[in-house]
TrEMBL record:
Family, as annotated: Belongs to the peptidase M20A family.
Sections of the chain in a coiled coil: none
Signal sequence coordinates: none
Names of the cofactor(s): Zn(2+); Co(2+)
InterPro entries in alphabetical order: ArgE/DapE (IPR010182), Bact_exopeptidase_dim_dom (IPR036264), Peptidase_M20 (IPR002933), Peptidase_M20_dimer (IPR011650), Peptidase_M20A (IPR050072)
Entry keywords, A to Z: Cobalt, Hydrolase, Metal-binding, Zinc
Residues of the Peptidase M20 dimerisation domain: 207-321
Gene3D superfamilies: 3.30.70.360, Zn peptidases
Annotated organism of origin: Siminovitchia terrae (Bacillus terrae)
UniProt protein name: Acetylornithine deacetylase
SUPFAM superfamilies named in the record: Bacterial exopeptidase dimerisation domain, Zn-dependent exopeptidases
Domain of life: Bacteria
Keyword presence, Hydrolase: yes
Length: 433
């Protein structure tokens, strides 16, 4: 005989199945917004309207204020404006006595550039469906998760279930470069007992992630017309020496004893040479070259300590070169100032997530240590709010032809709904006909 809980869960799952086309349509629409850095406002207003008008949530918008945030240890310095680039928060406020616990579902709507677009077989902003996959920039990372978390709550409510604790839906900016959007919303007081972030980790639970910083290395040369190139100093060629030093630093990081959550990973700490820009004319020896890189490092290391070590390492390498010792590179940091973390999976958040996962996947939840960073760090490191990531299955993140598996999106939507029912508690009965 089915229990009341069984019947309630069935009714919510039936609602997810019935609204699946609506969820896919919603996902397509938000993926068709080119919400790269600085261009997030249109999709944020679209989501805010949906949360308010279609779901009846109390909606707030927060604009990050660098002056307010700058003293926070998790703040990342940026050199761009936050004007008209809101973080959106939709609140479901439970009625009466709160029986369960509150939760934040937080997804980022900023995406990286799809360039070079010529490498794509599908329109990066088309959200084209082929078979069971949706292709496009941000389909996996992570607008599919945003759709899943929104439609999980919507299905619970549409099934007539009243949750017994509060739920926040956050869509944040700048997860891909600073995390300041998430930080700003927490600092404005939008907190809960736990947080779930639907990163596309293939339905695994995140228990650790590395720290990340961005470094900028400016290398000087001695410019000239190309006819005097033999007497000039080409800054691009000189920059190779700093690139090699960065890669040597990467080897040194990975040769150390690994953090306990990364012992099985052969190369957890990656340094990526992401940008090089120099020169403006083929027949001119360039006087300056700027190299920008992303640096990963172990949990437990403070970002500033890593910056200090890296800067000292690069300057020491420059001292070994005739030109660079007399013309040392300028080393600066911007963007990510992100500390890594490790979280104990033996706690209620993971117990309830495992139960919900078992309902849809019929196997125990697997754990995952991530060699990148997510916004979960803010909750775990600075606010005592347990947070993890759990989301759909996809591929080609930050690459051409990004895709998400739509069946996994539906299953994640159901897992989130099952999590909501157990974590928040609920009232109202479903009667079997």
């Amino acid at each position: 005989m089915k229990t009341e809980n069984d019947l309630t869960l069935e009714s919510v799952f039936e609602q997810i199945d019935a609204s699946w086309e609506e969820e896919v349509d919603f996902l397509q629409k938000i993926c068709q917004f080119p919400s790269t850095l600085g261009n997030e406002a249109p999709v944020q207003h679209f989501i805010a309207d949906f949360l308010e008008k279609e779901m009846g949530l109390a909606v707030s918008k927060v604009i990050p204020d660098p002056e307010k945030l700058s003293s926070h240890p998790g703040y990342s310095e940026s050199d761009w404006s936050y004007d008209e680039r809101p973080v959106v928060i939709g609140e479901y406020r439970s009625e009466g006595k709160k029986k369960g616990k509150s939760v934040i579902f937080q997804g980022h709507i900023d995406v990286v550039s799809p360039e070079p677009v010529s490498f794509w077989k599908h329109d990066p902003w088309g959200a084209e469906i082929v078979g069971n996959k949706m292709y496009g920039r941000g389909t996996a990372d992570m607008k599919s998760g945003v759709a899943a978390m929104i439609f999980a709550l919507k299905a619970v409510r549409d099934a007539g279930i009243k949750l017994s604790s509060d739920v926040m839906i956050k869509t944040v900016t700048e997860e891909e470069c600073t995390g300041n959007g998430a930080l700003a919303a927490i600092e404005e007081g939008f907190k809960a007992d736990v947080a779930l972030i639907p990163e596309p980790l293939g339905q695994k639970g995140l228990i650790a992630q590395v720290g990340v910083i961005w470094v900028k290395v400016k290398v000087k040369g001695l410019g000239a017309h190309t006819e005097r190139a033999d007497k000039a100093v080409n800054s691009i060629i000189e920059s190779y020496k700093m690139i090699n030093a960065l890669l040597d630093f990467e080897k040194a990081l990975n040769s150390q004893e690994k953090h306990k959550d990364f012992t099985d990973h052969p190369h957890p700490y990656n340094i990526n040479i992401g940008k090089i820009h120099s020169g403006d004319w083929p027949s001119t020896v360039p006087s300056e070259c700027i190299v920008e890189a992303r640096v990963g490092f172990p949990p437990g290391v403070k970002p500033q300590d890593l910056k200090d070590d890296l800067k000292a390492y690069l300057l020491a390498a420059a001292q070994k070169d005739e030109w660079l010792s007399e013309n040392p590179p300028e080393i600066s940091f911007y963007g990510f100032h992100a500390e890594g973390f490790s979280i104990d999976p033996n706690q209620e958040l993971f117990d309830v997530l495992n139960d919900a996962h078992m309902v849809t996947e019929e196997k125990p939840l697997e754990f995952f240590s991530f060699t990148a960073t997510t916004d979960a760090r803010f909750y775990n490191l600075y606010y005592g709010i347990p947070a993890t990531c759990y989301g759909p299955t996809g591929g080609a993140l930050h690459a051409p032809n990004e895709w998400v598996d739509l069946e996994s999106v539906k299953r994640v939507t159901k897992t989130y709904a099952a999590f909501l029912l157990k974590w928040c508690g609920y009232s109202g009965k479903v009667i079997e006909e």
